[in-house]
Automatic annotation (TrEMBL):
SMART domains the UniProt entry points to: LRR_BAC, LRR_TYP, LRRCT
Signal peptide positions on this chain: 1-35
Keyword rRNA-binding: no
Entry keywords, A to Z: Leucine-rich repeat, Repeat, Signal
Segments forming domain LRRCT: 299-344
Top-level taxonomic group: Eukaryota
Record protein name field: Perilipin 5
Pfam families per record: LRR_1, LRR_6, LRR_8
Species name: Sus scrofa (Pig)
Keyword Kinase: no
Lineage of origin: Eukaryota, Metazoa, Chordata, Craniata, Vertebrata
UniProt-listed InterPro entries: Cys-rich_flank_reg_C, Leu-rich_rpt, Leu-rich_rpt_typical-subtyp, LRR_dom_sf
Length: 346
């Protein structure tokens, strides 16, 4: 199931920022089919009854004029360090803004003031280290914010103030070492949270007490060592949980308690040698949990009697286990190299 790796992961919210891109590709296909060759030095423009959609990439020139009815704007791969101050003036109906693959170092606090209807903001692969307080002052409609692969090493809750409809927050691929308390306290409609591939060693105990509708939680690729009791409990609707590629050595016995509909759990490539009895009690029940599966491979499991509880759970949920032949015992010596399933069946 390599599709669940951090590199290949997909989440339902990841489709939304790309729907218009798909429409542009379809448009290009139609135009090409009619024997018309698009001008590579011009932005691609698509007019519809809803408004104009514009996509610009080099060698096209950066747009200095935008139709007043613009609802979608993508200006990507221009290596801009600053956005023109007035680029969004005169397009108050803008709903999607894609600025990925530039070199933006900062944004003005007034940057989004002209576009109060903005719903999607994609800033993937820029050079942002900070966000100005007040950036989202009029962004009550914004539901998708992607800050993936920037240079954020700290995060201030005040930077996100004004976001009232946020459903998808992607902070993956930055340099975050810590998170502030009450970061998500006001995001009661958050469905997708991606904190993967940062440098987080611990998490605030109240991190998940704000959003009550979380379905996807990405924490992979950090430096987490412990999953505390009750940390996940405020999120009974959580369906996909990625904890792979951390440094986890300890899982509290009640770490998964309260997760009523978990479909996917990835604990692969950590430092787990054992797990406490009762950890799995709430997972894999007949109620329908683990519909997708689980992965516990890549851990140095010590296959002794302390794993008896895990053995019973593996036998009962064998059909949901990824990489069965790659989930081995690291000890004791007599069982080294054997698969956990083989030991469990014996």
């Amino acid at each position: 199931m390599s599709s669940w790796s951090p590199e290949g992961k997909q989440s339902p919210g990841s489709w939304e920022p790309h729907l218009c891109r798909i429409l542009f590709l379809l448009l290009l296909f139609v135009v090409s089919a009619k024997g018309v060759t698009p001008d590579p030095n011009a932005c691609l423009v698509f007019h519809s009854s809803n408004g104009s959609s514009i996509s610009c990439q080099p060698p096209a020139k950066f747009p200095h004029y935008l139709p007043a009815d613009t609802i979608y704007l993508a200006t990507e791969f221009f290596n801009l360090t600053q956005m023109p101050a007035d680029i969004l003036q005169g397009i108050p109906n803008l709903q999607e803004l894609h600025l990925s693959n530039n070199q933006l170092e900062d944004l003005s606090a007034k940057f989004l003031l002209p576009v109060p209807q903005l719903k999607v903001l994609d800033l993937t692969r820029n050079a942002l280290k900070r966000l100005p307080p007040g950036l989202f002052k009029v962004s009550a409609a914004l539901h998708t914010l992607v800050l993936k692969e920037n240079r954020l090493d700290i995060l201030d809750a005040s930077w996100l103030r004004g976001l009232k409809a946020l459903r998808h927050l992607d902070l993956s691929g930055n340099q975050l070492r810590t998170l502030p308390r009450k970061l998500l306290a006001n995001f009661t409609d958050l469905h997708i949270l991606d904190l993967g591939n940062n440098q987080l060693q611990t998490l605030p105990p109240d991190l998940l007490r704000g959003p009550l509708k979380l379905e996807w939680l990405h924490l992979e690729g950090n430096r987490l060592q412990v999953l505390e009791e009750g940390f996940l409990a405020p999120q009974p609707k959580l369906r996909y949980l990625f904890l792979n590629n951390n440094k986890l050595t300890t899982l509290a016995a009640g770490a998964f308690r309260g997760l009523q509909v978990l479909d996917m759990l990835d604990l692969s490539n950590n430092s787990l040698t054992s797990v406490p009895e009762g950890l799995w009690a709430s997972l894999g029940k007949a109620a329908g949990n683990m519909k997708v599966g689980f992965d516990i491979s890549g851990n140095p499991w010590i296959c002794d009697q302390k794993l008896d509880d895990l053995y019973r759970w593996l036998v009962a949920n064998e059909d949901k286990m990824f990489f069965q032949n790659n989930t081995h015992c690291a000890g004791p010596k007599a069982l080294e190299g054997q698969t956990l399933l083989a030991v469990a069946a014996s």
